[in-house]
Amino acid sequence: MQAMMPATCILRQRCAERDLAWHHPTVHDFHPMPLLNPHPPSIPGRAKVIVVGGGVMGASAAWHLAKAGAAVTLVESNPDSRSTATASSLGWVGASASSPSDNPAAFALRLKALEAFAALEGQLGPLPIATRGTLLWLSNEEETAAMIAEHQSSGTRMERLLRAQISDKEPMLAQAPPLAAWAPDDFALEPAAFARQLLAGAQDLGASMLQGTVDAVEVTGSRVSGISVGGQRLTADTVVLANGLGAQALASTAGVHLPIYPSPAVLLRFGLETHGLRHLLCAEDLELRPSLGGGLVSAADYPDNAESGFPALAARSAEAIAHLLGLTAAPALVSIAAAQRPMTTDGTPLCAYVGEIDGLFALVAHPGVILAPFLGQLCATSVLDA
Ligand SMILES: Cc1cc2nc3c(=O)[nH]c(=O)nc-3n(C[C@H](O)[C@H](O)[C@H](O)COP(=O)(O)OP(=O)(O)OC[C@H]3O[C@@H](n4cnc5c(N)ncnc54)[C@H](O)[C@@H]3O)c2cc1C
């Protein structure tokens, strides 16, 4: 029997600054547009690549491209925004975030992406990891057992834990289920800090960071010749559109249609300093993890009644946390915000040259945090091989 998905399992769907105690030693600077020479001299033998978007996808592309020797300029409209998909992400990275039978190709891709994560950590240094290991359970024992069996037969590490073992692993749980899956290789990181780490690393490798909103892709003849940003032209051999949902509008300025659409999801932050939660929990109706800077982070489906449903969603989530952790009072809500996840219409990542013109590359995928290291690497290889 195929395991059912928990109702709010954000990743299993089709698929702050203040909270972050973790700091990268290098602070990246985005230069405002006037500081940059819009026509930097070409460096013989080095591909000139513009990456649009400094979310996790653009940051990974910039790092991999710079590492592979490209002359990279990354343009980001709002480096401090907290409303991007990356800043609002739960940051769950692991094979257990999807079932092999849901979509075998997507599952295989995630396994590859996890290898790329491990390789990246080796090169970039310690990642801003909030917690390692996920505990999951579905609405009944039979479904949880089926999920574990499916993962085990597909070769991913997933263990069966009975109630006493669950309590050992997560002593704060007041309501441990009779059976849970333990995914020891899963982890959750702080996505915004991870993107900043990649951007800082790209800068160390010579990439330039530019603050500005890209208005259009410039085309000369049948090739991309650069971008227009804040009324100025910036030239390049290749333009990588890694600006999430904004990629569609930019591609259309070059006459190219990208098959992407928005899918909203909600991130909730709770200010509970002494929660004692150790791992990421994907419980029947709750996705919850500790935040690196203290407190708890939870992801949820976007309410049917849009933002007017936020107060009820926040109250439900706080109650569910209190129930799960046996708290006497519901934790205080610090923030609740929705962000649009960039999705591709057929669910497969867009990591390729697009359209009839040369030099226009699109990099849009879900789940973006998991896939960013692998796709960033693939983007760099594709661009530099071309
Ligand atoms: C609540 C929630 C939970 C999630 N949980 C997970 C999870 O656990 N694991 C996982 O893998 N994924 C998760 N996701 C999905 C993941 O966050 C996204 O897939 C990923 O962050 C997308 O990254 P991105 O870089 O493509 O887009 P974005 O983060 O949106 O970045 C795009 C950037 O481009 C910039 N930009 C846009 N237009 C322009 C322009 N014209 N000029 C210059 N800059 C521009 C924007 O300012 C933005 O910074 C979650 C998403 C949400 C909302």
UniProtKB/TrEMBL annotation:
InterPro entries hit by this protein: FAD-dep_OxRdtase, FAD/NAD-bd_sf
Limits of the FAD dependent oxidoreductase domain: 48-380
Cellular component GO terms, alphabetical: cytoplasm
Protein name: FAD-binding oxidoreductase
MF-aspect GO terms: oxidoreductase activity
Keyword Oxidoreductase: yes
UniProtKB keywords: Oxidoreductase
